[in-house]
Amino acid sequence: MEYCAKNQLLDKLPKELLSYVQEKSELCKPDHIYVCDGSEEENKMLLAAMEKNGEIRKSKKHKNCWLATTDPRDVARVESRTIICTKNQHDVVSTPKSGFRPIVDPNMPNIKQTALGNWMDTDEMILILNERFNGCMKGRTMFVIPYMMGPFNCPYSKIGVELTDSPYVVCSMRIMTRMGERVLNELNKVESPNFIKCLHSVGVPLPAQEPIINNWPCNPAKTIITHFPERNEIITFGSGYGGNSLCGKKCFALRIGSILAKKEGWLAEHMLIMGVTNPKGEKKYFCAAFPSACGKTNLAMLQNRDIIPGYKIECVGDDIAWMRFDEEGRLRAINPEFGFFGVAPGTSQSTNPIALEMIKEDTIFTNVAETSNGDVYWEGLENDVDLNNVTITSWKNQPWQKGSKEPAAHPNSRFCTYASRCSIIDPNWESPEGVPIEAIIFGGRRPTGVPLVYEVFDWDHGVFVGATMRSESTAAAEFTNKQIMNDPFAMRPFLAYNFGQYLSHWLSIGQKPGLKLPKMFHVNWFLKDPITNQFLWPGFGENIRIIDWIFRRLNNENCAIKSPIGYLPEKGSINLTNLKNININQLFHIQKDFWLKECKSIREYFVENVNDDLPKEMWTQLDLLENRIQQI
Ligand code: GTP
Ligand code: SPV
Ligand code: MN
Question: Which residues are tagged catalytic?
């Protein structure tokens, strides 16, 4: 078997891990077991083997770049089949006012689906999983991936071990996490080591019963992504797509992570972390929570290009922040990841040149299109690729032309590359004490009504603004139509415990005396002109103008005026130098009818979905907001 060149690391597994591997290999019945050392040699061997099997193609143009195209049924996170399993339902979900959604899958009658996550009883789920996993790795190799979330010398980093039958997962985990032998060394340093157990299978034992489409084995009918916080365990079946299969990312760092965070008094959030240096050379760190495919990577790598001369952005992370208050009362954040798993479409020389440069080597692309001269292609690259002189093959392996009905790349196509490849990676990005956060920014895709930027009144109001975030749905999950969905704290798909308790945790963590609380803001890059349907704000690099305003507010500059929804920039206080055709009134108009409707929807959402679990402070904030709006 080509994946099994050596296996000497089996002897190095601590006994807890060895018995986990034994138990799961007896269930999954792989032909081989291979413990990953994380070496360059091993990575090369796996990539070459995948290339030979047709699972990936080598880029003809870029060094050590690889292209995977998936079975078109396996392209995004599957939220309806993402489930948290515990003994007690109420630990995970509130009971919706009008009852749980009817379940269409007769094989899973007892899953409780809500707008804020799905729950099932642990014992029942184990029965379902045992049926799926029994013999699921026949004909395949079980890879053992020891990995660390967070830097090696950081006391807040945590270890996981993923067992998977997918070499694509191994190579992606090598980019997204710190993995291999050095993590085994960490495990072996202590008597009975703690690690999060992760089991993943593509769900296609060999020989396959059905044709494998695009050499991308998956089992969409049986896909299920399950979490067992009471057992520190993640079990995921049937999908190879990143968010469903790279357990370190959403399953561990956000879902299991947020539960550990609640217990241990910290925060695990779906947030970017960025360093901002102003023209005077002062540096501050911001973090920002935007829902999936709503602009975290782009903001974290913002290029100022002298729009406001002297500003410099450096990137600490683009997706996940683990944060805690230090002894001096400052909120400190680490990025638990080691790479970026970023949305490809929209990434271009004009929007995100830093990302474009970063993915020229050592990158795995999934579901992007390809040009005839061996380059990658996706929507947004029209001005960077000479479409008259190359032909394009779409992610579905079809000839593609400008104007074709279907997109060239899947809207959720992704690049996966090392954080260290980012030219503006922050010098402190691996610092074990984390970086001090002074601003927390919330945001989403709101085509109408929500202004470009506002600042919240205080911590409780900030928690309310996070709790009431709404955004247009995107291709990052299985939703096909654009609808405005609630996505509190950008965490809706990643909530793993009762949302009422999540809010209480946020409220209480800010209440301790002596804290230097970060200020909180809400931004919206996505306002549209209702007539032309064009964005009203140019976004991307131009967002530095808003970052500048926020920076000045952190320095207590008097450049804000009170409005019913929060502090708005005072007239003239946003630097608009050299920016033409901006309708600033439209970008900041607070319309009474819109906000009354917004309050009504928020109330309905809270009543229907959170019910008695909603902390009283949130009802108070809603009443206050509604009263202020009434006075417009
Ligand atoms: P996840 O990785 O899914 O968590 O997403 P993300 O929040 O990191 O989103 P990302 O930065 O990759 O952006 C998603 C899409 O939004 C891309 O197509 C971007 O081009 C687009 N986008 C990002 N920032 C802006 C902006 O300021 N204005 C506009 N109009 N589009 C933006
Ligand atoms: C997201 O959907 O928020 C992502 C991509 O960052 S995935 O890791 O696939 O969830
Ligand atoms: Mn994300």
Answer: 294
DSSP three-state, residue 244: helix
Domains of the chain are 10-56+77-256 (3.40.449.10), 268-335+429-596 (3.90.228.20), 341-421 (2.170.8.10)
For residue 624, count other CB atoms closer than 10 A to its CB. 15
Q: How is the chain split among helix, strand and coil, in percent rounded to 5?
A: 30, 25, 45
**pTM of the shown model:** 0.98
Cα–Cα dist 407/422, whole Å: 28
β-sheet bridge partners, residue 484: 472
Burial 275-289 (b: 16+ CB within 10 A, else e): bbbbeeeebbbbbbb
As beta bridge partners, residue 143 has 34, 164
Contact yes or no for 143/219 (Cβ under 8 A): no
CA distance 530 to 535: 9
Task: Give the N- to C-terminal CA distance of the chain in Å, as an integer.
Answer: 72
Q: Identify whether the C-beta of residue 16 lies closer than 8 Å to the C-beta of residue 193.
A: yes
pLDDT in tens, 485-538: 999 999 999 999 999 999 999 999 999 999 999 999 999 999 999 999 999 999
For 382, other C-beta atoms within 10 Å of its C-beta total: 12
Pocket perturbation via mutation, ligand 2, pick of 149, 245, 292, 474 by most ligand atoms within 8 A of CB: 292
Q: 10 — phi, psi (to 5°)?
A: -50, -35
Q: Alpha carbon 309 to chain centroid distance?
A: 31
Q: Which protein residues touch ligand 1 with a CB less than 6 Å away?
A: 290, 292-298, 318-319, 342-343, 345-346, 351, 476, 525-526, 535, 539-540, 543
Q: Could you tell me which residues come within 8 angstroms of residue 182 by beta carbon, excluding any fewer than 6 positions away? A: 38, 152
Dump pLDDT digits (tens) for 376-434. Answer: 999 999 999 999 999 999 999 999 999 999 999 999 999 999 999 999 999 999 999 99
Confidence of residue 146 (pLDDT cuts 50, 70, 90): very high
Given a contact cutoff of 8 angstroms between Cβ atoms, the answer to whether 533 and 540 are in contact is: no
Q: How far is the CA of 337 from the centre of ligand 1 (A)?
A: 19
